[in-house]
Structure formats: structure tokens, C-alpha cells
Amino acid sequence: MEEGRKEKILSYFRELDRSFFMDIHKEAAHLDEAVPIGYEQTISQPSLVLEMTLALNLQKDSAVLEIGTGSGFQTALLAEFSKTVYTVERIEELHTRAKERLQKAGFQNIYFKLDDGSAGWKEKAPFDRIMVTAAASEMPQELVDQLKPGGKMLIPIGSAVVQKLKLVEKNEQGKLTTTTLNYVRFVPLKGKYE
Fold this sequence. Notes:
Layout (H helix, E strand, L loop, with lengths): L2 H13 L19 E4 L2 E3 L2 H10 L7 E5 L5 H8 L3 E6 L2 H13 L5 E5 L12 E6 L8 H5 L1 E12 L4 E8 L5 E9 L10
Parallel strand pairs: 3-4, 3-6, 4-5, 6-7
Antiparallel strand pairs: 1-2, 7-8, 8-9
């Protein structure tokens, strides 16, 4: 990633008010840890959100698929540095609140879907970047299929206790390269890959 772009992401990230994305536990917004947002879901720790955003190497013309809108905190970062974000959330209350928040914040390049994210968003595929913010037990083939050649996907894979954060890169011939970036703990991806 070019240095100037990285600096812009860092600057925007530092200015982003995490408490804006929280309805409960707002007093914990400044902590670098995951915080419950209700419905057995969490808002991820800020340092991990930043690490994942930088690892995707977003481009101005990127079409991004996000699986797990949650509070909308990660979505805001993706949308600020991409052309379009297609975000899928399975819990109606979180979907509705995130949509209201992000529209209030002025974003016009985010498309929202209430659905099981494990199948991606086939009608809008293929995507330049895919960000999965819930843990799968194995690599979801549907998401791999929806990733463009030259694209990148971030996904936590493993058990309910601990997962490996994987960076999946698809070359122009469709061959995948997978790198483990970190050990993480996300809520499970519901659906086919629980």
C-alpha cells in the first residue's frame, strides 16, 4: 500500500468516533478490545479493525463485499476508501441500526442486505475485496467464487475458541494463495460454514 494512502486511512481511523456505532457499553468505546453490541455480537477491537482494513489494500475503485455489518464501524472504514461496499447482516436489528447510522453519517456508496452472509451476494459479484467479520469452520467456496481475479479476501477460519485470520489472494488465473496474518477470536459465521 502506498504510504500516502496508508496515512489517510490512519488519520480517518483516529478521527472515527467508535461510540457513534454503539448503543450499549459506550463507556468502553475508547478501549482497544471487542465490546458486546447485543444479540451475541461484538464490535471488534479498533486495532484489529485497522489491521484488517490495511491488509485488504483498498483501492478507490474497489467493489467490496462485507460479511457481517454488525455495528457498521468496519463498514465506515471500508466505504471511505472504496468505490462501493455491499454489506450483509443476518440480524435485522443490527442491519437496521447500522443502515440508519451510516446513512446519517452521509455515506451514499453502501448497499445493505439482510441475509445469511455465508452465501455472499451473488447478484453483485464479483468483488475486488471481501471482508468477513465472522469465523468460518472452513473456507466458504461461495465467497471464493465471488472474488475477482486479482482480488483479496480476509476471513477468520477455525473453531469457536480461536481462529487464524487468513488473507486469501486470487491471481489473474484464479489460483489462490493463503497467508495467516494473526490469531483472532470472532463470533461464528452462521449458516453453511458454522
